[in-house]
Amino acid sequence: MGIKNLLKLLKAVTVKAKITNFSGKTAAIDASAWLYKGIYSCSWELATKVPTHGYLSYPLKMVDLLLKHSIKPILVFDGLTLPLKENVVSKRKSDKEKNKEVAEGLLAEGKNEKAATMFARCMSIKSYMIYNFMDVLHKMNVEYVVAPYEADAQIAYLCKEKIADFAISEDSDLLVYGCQNLVFKLDLEGNCENIVVNETLRNKEYKKSIPKGPTKDLASLSPDAFMDLCIMSGCDYLENIPGFGLKKALKMLKNCTLEQTIRMLYRNKVYRDKVPEDFLEKINKIKLQFLYGRVIDPRTYTITQINPLPNDVSDEHIDGLGQIFDSTLIEPYAKGIYSMRENEYRERMKDTEIQDMLKEIVLSNMQKMNMENKRKGYVKGLNPNITKGLEAKNTSEAKEINEEEKEMIDLFPKKSTNKTKKKENSQLNRYGRGDVVDKGVCGKRRFYTHFNGDSLVYYFKNHTKRFKEEEVKPNAT
For the chain, which residues score pLDDT lower than 50? Predict the structure, then answer.
């Protein structure tokens, strides 16, 4: 979730960017953010227990986007629940269970659209989804690591140690952890927003150009005061004081210390009954997590901290930040083949299983695109052979259409025209021989589908995906 409204407050020092600007660099990525977006895209199937691997579609597209632009990705997965976060996790779980009950009630009433919205709000990442994603990454030779606890802490450590050059996440907590270069709001077209702390908030010359307002006040804070501000205004480890957000906290902290600010809150008629008695103690404990949270060094597979412990902070002070793992289990745990929760090893997916899973994802994406095309009216005209099949759906001939042919009918609903024959031939020359079984338009982008003997080859925006389909043999057009 991060610090509420922090990114809005930093809008003046945020720049629009393209992912191509980071070519040749290494990115540390919050894998959960991409997985959640993938889950939302197939929340209906997951909620109604329809078998699907669609939750991997979005994450794999994003990985492909980085690789295409020569960016080395290191995906970071969340580990065990941090003791500091147990109450927040418990509350989120309770909220999702309530949303699920509401969604099931709406589904029973036949209100499918409203039910779909509520189902999306109760989705959570399951362990099998994470393991499937890891196994595909392993097959692609893409690096990843499982954090001991918080992925944000692990990402900050990778950036601090120059293992990664920048971070990709939607969680503003990374700025509190000390991450200097954050990319967020990255989309499939490569558009994103970027904050470079050293060049903006910590640059004396740049500070002078920031217009007066909350952002300039924020830039005037020391790193320690900035951390105090973000914690006391509400974060993943501490609920905010009702009515006391980031801007009000900033007005007080820019002229006072943390202790002075809390004393003023206790004397304030509006807030004194809302501030916990141990508020200062909680903030100081959370600061230890942001400064010395436990992480894994992927170079040696040892447990360490984000920053070295100072002399006045011992291991006893950070006992609340999680246990230290058995040294023999750190490497298999970081590679995702040992689970600390179940205390057991697991086997990776076989290559054939991964191929079948990826094939199912590609087919599912093509079907969804076809449905979207029909809804928007982009597809005009049909292949004669397929038209016959479509017409047969309402006649006795429909019985003669097998399952594979039905799938082809759904996937390929457009016929080539004479006007585009020349362009079609150029596509054939470019991508290889084969009968064109379909072509169509999705928005402003054209796609072609060829049949090469025993394979369907799907071309879309110059990307090729092949998969075996021996039983599908459409007639040549």
Answer: 377-437, 443-444, 450-477
Alpha-carbon distances of 189 from 42, 361, 372, 430, 443, rounded to whole Å: 21, 20, 19, 24, 14
Residues of the chain with CATH 3.40.50.1010: 6-204+293-335
* Architecture of the domain made up of 6-204+293-335: 3-Layer(aba) Sandwich (3.40)
pLDDT of residue 13: 87
Written as six digits, the tokens of 311 are: 């002399």
> Cα separations (Å) of 246 from 84, 110, 200, 251, 258?
21, 42, 20, 9, 14
Tokens of 294: 């436990």
pTM: 0.76
- Enter the DSSP assignment of 85: G
Question: In sequence order, what are the residues at sequence separation of 6 or more whose Cβ sits closer than 8 angstroms to the Cβ of residue 362?
Answer: 458, 465, 467
Is residue 4 within 8 A of residue 235, CB to CB? The reply is no
Separation in Å, CA 152 to CA 29, 57, 60, 182: 9, 23, 21, 12
Question: Do residues 297 and 304 touch, judged by C-beta distance below 8 A?
Answer: yes
CA dihedral of residues 54, 60, 62, 64 (deg, nearest 10): -140
- Nearest CA-CA partner of 472 in 425, 439, 437: 437
Cβ neighbours of 86 (radius 10 Å): 11
What pLDDT digit, counting tens, does each position of 410-428 carry?
433 444 444 444 444 444 4
| 458: its two tokens | 């799907």
HSE at residue 111, side-chain half, CA atoms within 13 A, is 11
The CA distance from 418 to 361, in Å, is 33
Q: Give the other-Cβ count within 10 Å of 442's Cβ.
A: 16
DSSP state of 306: S
Six token digits for residue 262? 């809390």
What φ, ψ does residue 76 adopt, rounded to 5°?
A: -115, 125
pLDDT one-digit tens code per residue, 322-377: 777 888 999 999 999 999 888 899 999 998 999 888 888 888 777 777 665 655 54
The CA distance from 331 to 131, in Å, is 16
Q: Helices (H) and strands (E) in the chain — how many of each? A: 20, 15
Asked if 305 contacts 293 with a C-beta cutoff of 8 angstroms, the reply is yes
CB 327 within 8 A of CB 121: no
Task: Judge contact between 88 and 237, C-beta under 8 A.
Answer: yes
